[in-house]
Amino acid sequence: MASQSNGEAGAAATPDAAAARPSLIEIFLEFLLIGAVSFGGGIIAYERVLLIEKRKWLTNDTFMATLAISQTMPGLNSVNIAVLAGDYLRGALGAIAATIGLILPGSVFVLAVGYLYSQGADHPIVNILLAGIAACATGLLAAITYKIGSEHIRHLKSLAIIVATFVLMSIFKLSLIWVLVIMSPIALYVYRPGSGK
Description:
Blueprint: H1 2-12, H2 15-18, H3 24-37, H4 42-54, H5 60-71, H6 77-120, H7 124-153, H8 156-171, H9 176-190
């Protein structure tokens, strides 16, 4: 009986089980905050911090599965993660709340900036600002890639798959569909059950 209680306590300690089911308002507000304070590729890092570290709504494995699925779907990875995470937490309404919360600040910001850009597109300061924003977005994307994939870089099999994918996309300029067609069977074979990690 004691061991059963310990087992139940251990199960309750996992992030998925420990957190109470969030309300639609909570989901909306948290994703609204992410949409308001994140830029470029950095948004995925904010989603990871929210879902795993801050709110403990997802486990790391669940988030990585969500990220993997989102990368195979059309559209932005960050929006796909919001849809999948919202659906996981509260079903279809959760997906809608998370998605609207995530895209609302950016939509308003882009509309405002687009209007301002149309009024002064020829101004030299505008081009300097855009170049600086592009550099920041590149740095954020690199930092997220390292944070999410740092564990995999230490393993030879994963590193080989990462390098091969990079070569196919950056050097051979293959589209995402062709990269998936080539690399998915290889990755599945390398990580097939019983092959070891």
